[in-house]
Amino acid sequence: MTPTAAELGSKVVTVINESTSQNAAVKRIEFVGPSVGADLAQTGARR
Q1: Is residue 13 a contact partner of residue 25, using CB atoms and an 8 Å limit?
Q2: Which residues contact 33 (CB under 8 A, 6 or more apart)?
Q3: What gap in Å lies between CA 16 and CA 10, rounded to an integer?
Q4: Is the Cβ–Cβ distance between 24 and 11 less than 8 Å?
Q5: What is the dihedral of CA 40, 7, 13, 17, to 10 degrees?
Q6: CA separation (Å) from 26 to 1, 11, 32, 35?
Q7: Residue-level pLDDT, tens digit, the chain, 47 residues
């Protein structure tokens, strides 16, 4: 069974909170197409 966006978001927040001293929170989850996703992976990592 594929996890829902909410389940994935919860898992991501848990890993971040356990791995750092920061308190992460999910404000929203959005889905984009593969070309937009590739662009965000390249440019978003630089910010």
Answers
A1: yes
A2: none
A3: 10
A4: no
A5: -150
A6: 22, 10, 17, 23
A7: 788 888 888 998 999 999 998 888 888 877 777 777 777 777 765 65
Domain ranges of the chain: 5-44
pTM (2 d.p.) = 0.52
Q: What is the 3-state secondary structure (H, E, C) of the chain?
A: CCCCHHHHHHHHHHHHHHHCCCCCCCCCCCCCCHHHHHHHHHHHCCC
- Sign, CA dihedral 14-24-27-40, equals negative
